Amino acid sequence: MKRVFLVIALAAISHxxxxxxxxSRKCCRVQSQYKKFGPGIGGNxxxxxxxxxxxxxxxxxxxxxxxxxxxYFVGPEPASPSPDFVNSPxxxxxxxxxxxxxxxxxxxxxxxxLPPNCRDLARMSVKIxxxxxxxxxxxxxxxFFYDTENEEKIYSRSLPSLFGAWxxxxxxxxxxxFGPSNKVFQYAATNGFYHIGVQDDTGVDYIQTxxxxxxxxxxxxxxKKFGPGIGSNxxxxxxxxxxxxxxxxxxxxxxxxxxxYFVGPEPASPSPDFVNSLILDGRTxxxxxxxxxxxxxxxxxxLPPNCRDLVRMSVKIxxxxxSNxxxxxxxxxxxxxxxxxxxYSRSLPTLFDSWxxxxxGCRTIGxxxxxxxxQYAATNGVYHIGVQDDTGVDYIQTTLWYASPKKCLPSLWxxxxxxxxxxxxxxxxxxxxxxxxxxxxxxxxxxxxxVFFQNSxxxxxxxxxxxxxxxxxxxxxxxxxxDVRDVTIGGKKASASQRAQASSSPxxxxxPQKQLFCQPAFKQRVDxxxxxxxxxxxxxxxxxxxxxxxxxxxxxxFVEVIKGDNGLLFERRRAFNVGKCAGDCDQAGxxxxxxxxxxxxxxxCTPRGYKYSPRFLTRDGSHVSVPMITTCDCKRI
Length: 637
Known about the structure:
With about 625 residues, this protein is mostly beta strands. Among the domains are: about 60-215, Jelly Rolls (Sandwich), CATH 2.60.120; about 250-405, Jelly Rolls (Sandwich); about 485-510 and about 540-635, no CATH class. Helix content is about 5%, strand content about 45%. The strands form 13 sheets. The chain has a 5-stranded mixed sheet with strand order 4-5-10-7-8. It has a 5-stranded mixed sheet with strand order 15-16-21-18-19. The longest helix is centred in the first third of the chain and has 9 residues, at about 185-190. Mean pLDDT is about 75; it is low at about 1-25, about 45-60, about 215-230, about 480-485, about 485-495, about 495-515 and about 585-600.
């Protein structure tokens, strides 16, 4: 019976122009990623998964976000500045207010979160409505946008210059526009948010952000030509790809001591090497919440374990000077107890502008990756801090910024059936992408969620898994799995001792030294219901580093007849690890090919060595041994 194939002819594209690259996009799926499969069937043109675009491409899509309520200062409503903005040097020690407040010597700070979108951001405008307090110093107020990563203002305007004048009790709204060349725009497009602040006698009613996204002039899928078709030519299939930015940082905060304004004391915990270092030799030490006179404060801050790179660190320390007149000579320092070096030191009068007796205040000190304090903390997981010698410490707050290791990777697949000359082939197609952490430092099973029978009543998603990761400098050791497993005896699960008696120790036949690859070590099969009955799906359960051609765990079940203590015959089900050979011999580094057979014959991964299970009695009365593969290798057949 002849098969009838639907022939799809695509018109050639005479004018197809792609847009130049713009800002880096958020992680999203890009459809214009095609792979070719073939040869195809017949001589007619066939295109697989060819989508077209219709309608107008003019216009610029927009999105509007309003933070706060447009209520002319009928509030208040809380502002929500991010932790890294609150702990940044510009806001350190400041008293912050929310929306609809009339502050006096207090700052407004807020972080505007943009909606997720994989389209290119083309323009951004920010409308902010303000109301000056009655303080006569409103003419010194300003509006600013802040970069917390580089700790700098990326836009700042005084309110008198923004509005022409800004006397007390003034109120007005202003819209500020930002294009792709502006730092505020670039920061927002890269991170998905921006930080805005107003100092320090002016309140904010609301902030309205309008985002304009670039509209593509052509549909990417139209810029791929199919044809003249399949036959001798391959088939092009849209398998998708993941692209975009996963930038950003994650933060962690540690507090040593208690934020209680010197209601204590609480013990400090300097490490032994810090206590015994040269700088503290012979010193009398104090704890948190004490007011020392000629005594030193010393403490070691322990950072949380984290495999991600530390890119920035800020240390907020709150101090209180004693009544001693020599507090003007006090200082704060960070120390390297092994080398005996002071990594950072500032006198308190310099840090606080002045430091007379009974002074109190907090300061935040920032460290970047080029600073010795951060390098020491990132390397050792701790840092040592001290204060000399007439000033007490209430608490120390450490904020850590880690570079995001996430990558834009596939998160969801489906199968596409591609008709080829050799039959129908199932091809993986990416339908979802996410920013993910993926450990590839060693061979691991990675998640791979596949949607079967998409858009049907049988649709189901299963994590089939795949193997990925490094196998460098990993010695290959054959799996130490039992060759024999007793599943049941007389309908009951066998005990550990019964399994041990029935097991035979695996032969230790080492593989020759070869290049290793991260490959499946154990698979499981499950049946899923589909439109044409049940379908078998293989799920990877474990991965390991093996040669390209390797032995894989594979159990077969047999029924053994045994004689019980009472003389009655019982049946038990036994599972033997007979193994099977997996992998291929096409890639370099798969090992030397066994010099067997004709050189023109194909090379396949086949069994090289066997051993046999202990003999056992079957239902038909015969005694059998099961052959079990011990090693595999590439062989010409």
